[in-house]
Amino acid sequence: AQSVSQHNHHVILSEAASLELGCNYSYGGTVNLFWYVQYPGQHLQLLLKYFSGDPLVKGIKGFEAEFIKSKFSFNLRKPSVQWSDTAEYFCAVNRDKLSFGAGTTVTVRA
Amino acid sequence: KAGVTQTPRYLIKTRGQQVTLSCSPISGHRSVSWYQQTPGQGLQFLFEYFSETQRNKGNFPGRFSGRQFSNSRSEMNVSTLELGDSALYLCASSLAVAGAGDTQYFGPGTRLTVL
């Protein structure tokens, strides 16, 4: 079965720490990859996406993600988090439909 | 450009009732997808409509149905509500069908509580 796995359920870090969230998928062939974020009380927003080309993609708010085809991975990174990055982060893979990982709750302590 | 809008934002129903949720996509978007979000199951795909035709369907019982109108607005219906249907129902729109890989933009959701 097709699936998307996010490695961490809950991550707690302090401001200025670096963040890396893992995402692996099990689909073969061409896929489109996304990271969405859901801030408390807000709706899902697109952070970044990968369709083709440079496997290192940059998104909003200083986030970036690297697509490693051989590892079926699309990990999200941010060098220095802020308190306002507290949110739930979802990795998603699009083939004929958008399939989401379980999400990772990130709590940034001031 | 206005975003995806969903109405109502909150609903409380009792078991056995039915409910209809509405979604208005971003202007010009022709694809509407619906998702159910729960703490236990996460985000699960319900179905996708494009040009008034259902293009794809997730693994949900037949009590869950939907439709799309000529102006791309979409409705989903849940009949014979069960307690387990309590969830946040999200609608997302995109220019093209999901299979084309187009970015989906999400609405704020409708919070359904079944008592």
Structure characterization notes:
- The complex is a heterodimer of chains A (110) and B (115).
- With 110 residues, chain A is mostly beta strands.
- Chain A has strands at 4-6, 10-14, 19-21, 23-25, 32-38, 45-50, 56-58, 64-68, 73-78, 87-94, 98-100, 104-109.
- Chain B is globular, with a radius of gyration of 13 Å.
- The mean pLDDT of chain B is 94.
- In chain B, 0% of the residues lie in helices and 52% in strands.
- Chain B has strands at 5-7, 10-13, 19-24, 31-38, 42-50, 53-57, 64-68, 74-78, 87-94, 105-106, 110-114.
- In chain B, the strands form 2 sheets. In chain B, strands 2, 4, 5, 6, 9, 10 and 11 form a 7-stranded mixed β-sheet that branches. In chain B, strands 1-3-8-7 form a 4-stranded antiparallel β-sheet, with no helix packed on it.
- The interface between A and B is medium-sized, with 21 and 21 residues.
Topology:
The complex is a heterodimer of chains A (110) and B (115).
Chain A: E1 4-6, E2 10-14, E3 19-21, E4 23-25, E5 32-38, E6 45-50, E7 56-58, E8 64-68, E9 73-78, E10 87-94, E11 98-100, E12 104-109
Parallel strand pairs in A: 2-12
Antiparallel strand pairs in A: 1-4, 3-9, 5-6, 5-10, 7-8, 8-9, 10-11, 10-12
Chain B: E1 5-7, E2 10-13, E3 19-24, E4 31-38, E5 42-50, E6 53-57, E7 64-68, E8 74-78, E9 87-94, E10 105-106, E11 110-114
Rg of chain A, Cα atoms, Å: 13 Å
**How much of the residues of chain B is beta strand, in percent?**
over 45%
Mean pLDDT of chain A: 93
Assembly state (oligomeric): heterodimer
Helix content of chain B: under 10%
State the secondary-structure class of chain A: mainly beta
Q: Give the ordered list of helices and strands of chain B.
A: EEEEEEEEEEE
Low-pLDDT stretches of chain B are none
Low-confidence spans of chain A: pLDDT under 50, at least 5 residues? none
- Biggest sheet of chain A: strands, sense, closure? 6 strands, mixed
Instruction: Determine the number of helices of chain B (DSSP H or I, runs of at least 4 residues).
Output: 0
Series of secondary-structure elements of chain A, N-terminal to C-terminal: EEEEEEEEEEEE
Distance between the termini of chain B: 37 Å
How many distinct beta strands of chain A? Answer: 12
Counted by DSSP, the helix tally of chain A is: 0
Gyration radius of chain B (Cα, Å) is 13 Å
Terminal residue distance of chain A:
40 Å
Summarize the amount of helix of chain A as a percent range: under 10%
Structural class category of chain B: mainly beta
Estimate the global geometry of chain B from the Cα principal axes: globular
Please, what is the average pLDDT of chain B? 94
